[in-house]
Amino acid sequence: MEELINVVDWSRAQFALTAIYHWLFVPLTLGLGIIVAVMETIYLKTKSEKWLATTKFWMTIFGVNFAIGVATGIILEFEFGTNWSNYSWFVGDIFGAPLAVEGILAFFMESTFIAVMFFGWKKVSPKFHLAATWLTAIGASLSALWILVANAWMQYPTGCEFNPATMRNEMTSFAAVALSPMAMSKFFHTVLSAWALGGVFVCGVCGWMMLKKRNLDHCWRSLKVGAWVGVIGIVLTMVTGDTSAITVAKYQPMKLAAMEGLYKGDHGQAIVAFGILNPSKQAFDEQDPYLFDISIPYGLSFLATHDFKAFVPGIEDIINGVSYDKEGNEVNTVSYAERMERGKRLQEMLSQYSAAMSSGNTLMQDSLKSTINADFKNFGYAYLDKPEEAIPNVPLTFYTFHFMVTVGGYLMLFLLLALLFAYKPEILNKAKWAKWWHILAIITIPLTYLCSASGWIVAEVGRQPWTIQDLMPNKVAISDLSAGYVQVTFWIFAVVFTALLIADIGIICKQISKKSQTNLDTVND
Amino acid sequence: MSDSSTNKQGFWSRVFHLYYDGFRSMTVGKTLWLIIFIKLFIFFIVIKMIFFPDFLGTKCDSDQEKTEYVRQQLVPGP
After folding, report:
1. Is residue B45 in a domain?
2. Are B75 and A120 inside 8 Å of each other by CB?
3. Is the ipTM of this complex over 0.85?
């Protein structure tokens, strides 16, 4: 058992490592793609060579990041087949369909038009080139859409039916999978946050160039577009963050409770603006969950339901199956102990189904299949040894969530100021503190990456122990491998991805430094 | 017939030259392609073939066997 837990932990660590490294490349591609497309649109409208030079500068940075990052996500699919084989089989065609669409439609769209974008300046008409640039940016977002649809299904499995004959889930509605509330909120929240990151990146690079007093006109031009895209991105990220919170409250209440370190819920529940968790707190003990906290009254109720007085369940309420409706009446929900019982009954029915298959009793099979599917949302609970096993890592979820929200608020302020300075450059030109603003802009780049990674940690750690919410916990999804085997590949990935990251940062910095020393008010090639 | 054939040739010829001339005139792109090829070699030849076999494929020969294997993993015996 200890070996199994080690395999689960190492496989999770490996997946987290590769996913986080992959995500270092993706948001800049998504954000900078839009920024480059907007810049080229301005160039086509103004016919100004300055805008063409600025577009080409940022297009080079986009190209470096795209090239280094491409195919880093394929590693995750390798891991599914080797480390998570039970999951890969169980999930059936649900995961395969969105990924196939991603591969065929989005990837080919992206890779076709990126060639026109980089090689086609003198080969195609300006309008066609602009269309190619926009289609590259849109193709990148469409790629992200299908990956996020697959991820959202793991958080909220819908549009499917379990087939006990094949032990696989079968898709019953592609629309239900692709357009689920979880998929939509995840897609918009993620992609729009990448716009904010792209905007911050442009501000940071311009900050460095301004510190060096290089190509100031180019910097002001870039800042206008970067700050606009960044502001739109961060505002819409906050709007979609609100939608995400409502979705999580509805479909993953345990995650929401962990995000807030909430053990006992209440009507008109406050939200913690700043807090330090009590590290020794366990569910169902009488300790205070916080050593220190500053809370906003009614905040969590409003965030979760848009109703200041609504009941938000805590971890213990969810385990006990306690909830209340808007009128304050107790709602009959199912406790985790009961869900574990139901899960075990489903396991027994699967055994009976297997026996019915062997004896060729199709009537019994049909009857069992419909009974199993009617209660299938409890299937995964059969594998829990105790209800508390379904509690995610509260400190990690709590702190990363609060870090993400705090930095998100800071980014809003930062990008609004950047936009102000872009249109009123005299403020920054006269200010004695301008140097510190530029330094702040540079520091904000890694801070935004940390914020983005934190969002993923909240989403993924907060849904533990589930690989597929309520249907399959990690310890069952895993392959029968040794921990040592997974450790070896973990370290290989750590080395390979670190090398790629160093190459990415190195080449981008070299290009920025080299190009910033040329005149970026004219086209140099 | 000849017109459409010429148009078709013209199109493919233009596509070919888009890539050919593009690759020839690359500067930083050459380094990037080198990194991409090294990366793809490491990912697909080294990592995938040596360390990431299809786990169920190594244990089972058919989908039926895979079904039974997963069933045994997910449903405890009597």
Report:
1. yes
2. no
3. no
